[in-house]
Amino acid sequence: MIKFQSLDHVEKRTFRNHIIGSFFNGIFIGILSLQDIIAKKTLLATDLEIAILTMIWPVSNFFSIYWGEILAGRDKSKFLYMAGIIGRLSLIFSFLINSPEALMLFLFLAYSSNSIIMPAQNSIFQVNYRPGIMGRLYGYSLSLYSIGLILSSIFAGRILDINGFYFRYLFIFAGICGFLFPVFLAGVKQKYYLEKRIKKLFTPRIIIEPLTNSLRLLKEEKDFRTFELFFFIYGTAFMVVLPAIPRLLVTRLKLSYTFIAFLKVILAQIGMLTLSPFLGKIHDRMNPPKFTSISFFLLVFYSGFLALSSVLPLNISVWMVTLAYLFFAIAMTGVNLSWNLSSIFFAKEKDASAFQAVHVSLTGLRGLMAPLLGYLVLKYFGPVTVFSIASLLFFTASVGMWYLEKRCFKCLDN
Q1: Degrees (nearest 5) of the Cα angle 108, 202, 78?
Q2: 88, pLDDT greater than 70
Q3: Which residue, 250, 249, 236, is CA-closest to 389?
Q4: Full-prediction pTM beyond 0.90?
Q5: Span 358-364, mean pLDDT?
Q6: Could you give the CA distance from residue 69 to residue 71 in angstroms, rounded to a whole number?
Q7: I want to staple 371 with a disulfide (CB 3.0 to 4.6 A). Which of 54, 178, 221, 267 is the partner?
Q8: Please, are residues 49 and 103 in contact by the beta-carbon 8 Å criterion?
Q9: For residue 400, what are the contacts with CB-CB under 8 A and spacing of at least 6?
Q10: Secondary structure (DSSP) of 98-144
Q11: CB-CB neighbours of 341 under 10 Å
């Protein structure tokens, strides 16, 4: 356990602002995590509309490659304020949402802010935290994030069971809380910048250069490229199942908002709340590919139990779904740490914002194909096939990360 007194002044301020902001970010995500269920139960969205809805978060992340380029070598505060105001605070107009299409528009604005927040956050952590303590500090912040997420999801589930259309008021509250996260991050100043800033913003070359720089980075950084390949396979599996989950939980099992919130949010976040500091410590001591491989392997059981819950009798299926989300809770605690911190490991002495921008943007690429693939498989073959394909992909990603760890064990540990 890290003693707060052992941190220097910059680390204390960074940590304090981050954990407070993480709590509000948890409230924001906790409410929005029910978006697909709201679309299905309240706005009566079709399976295709659900698939498109699940594409919004990853596709909006594609812009990270541009923001990563702009943020390098610059003070992040004004960009973080912009992300909070234009992105997350836009949800205060949620009273205008009366269709799945309107919901998609507002979610696109809200999630687009992540393409600025995530690269900025990693760049700040990279220089403000000493090596060896970052994982544990981030783990503590995840615990506060989980508390906010659990409380908001319990509250949201209860409110939505009263009246599904009360989601509009919940989204307004979520937008205000989500705005506070980048505001607290903006209050943290970097010690120094690892790369020179580009002289002019929004020039014609800013359209092409981030793409070419990202491709060059993947070409030059062999280990990072391999890591991203298997993370891409994991992400494809994660997104393939998304169109099938509302059909399973709402159409087949006919679960209430409160119980769905328990499964999708509370159960998953209890794992993050209790395990994040412990797994953060393990993350500091273990190289990222090995740590990530174990996390991916646990997700095989998640999708496997979802497949069983699609064919077993209803009373047994509810238990299978609960068991699936228990494995999901443990696995995603590890994946969350790896997703947010591994780019810093591979960046070494370079600015991590560029690495994290590539990492985040690749979610946009798989977001263009994986949910639609999941929808097509769901339409023509059913949910069991969807969940089985996901299990195979999770297993492939786990084996691939294990291979990467064995291939470059010495260079990674050094």
Answers
A1: 65
A2: yes
A3: 236
A4: no
A5: 77
A6: 6
A7: 54
A8: no
A9: 226, 229, 230, 233, 293
A10: -SHHHHHHHHHHHHHTHHHHHHHHHHHHHHHS-TTTHHHHHHHHHHH
A11: 23
Residue 131: partners with Cβ closer than 8 Å, 6 or more residues away: none
Q: Compute φ and ψ for 242, nearest 5 degrees.
A: -60, -45
Q: Which residue has the tokens 């990603």?
A: 397
Q: Supply 52's token pair.
A: 């498109």
Rounded distance between C-alpha atoms, residue 98 and residue 15, angstroms: 40
The C-alpha atoms of residue 185 and residue 148 are separated, in whole angstroms, by 17
Report d(CA 342, CA 348) in Å as an integer: 10
**Which pLDDT value is given to residue 320?**
95
Confidence of residue 205 (pLDDT cuts 50, 70, 90): low
Please spell the DSSP secondary structure of 268-314, one letter per residue. Answer: HHHHHHHHHHHHHHHHHHS-HHHHHHHHHHHHHHHHHHHHHHTTS-H
Q: Are 97 and 103 in contact (CB under 8 A)?
A: yes
The residue with tokens 């095989």 is 300
CB burial of residue 380 (10 Å; 0-12, 13-18, 19+): exposed
The single-letter code of the amino acid at 57 is: W
Q: What's the residue count for the chain?
A: 414
> Can you tell me the distance from the alpha carbon of 137 to that of 132, in angstroms, rounded to the nearest whole number?
10
In Å, what is the CA distance from 137 to each residue of 3, 12, 133, 280?
A: 10, 10, 6, 8
At CA 89, angle to CA 87 and CA 90, rounded to 5? 70
Burial-class residue 348 by CB neighbours within 10 Å (0-12, 13-18, 19+): exposed
Q: Are 265 and 153 in contact (CB under 8 A)?
A: yes
Sign of CA dihedral 290, 292, 296, 302: positive
Q: What is the pLDDT of residue 412?
A: 45
* Cβ–Cβ < 8 Å for 149, 177: no
Residue 35: band (very low, low, confident or very high) from pLDDT cuts 50, 70, 90: very high
Q: What six digits make up the tokens of 224? A: 């990072």
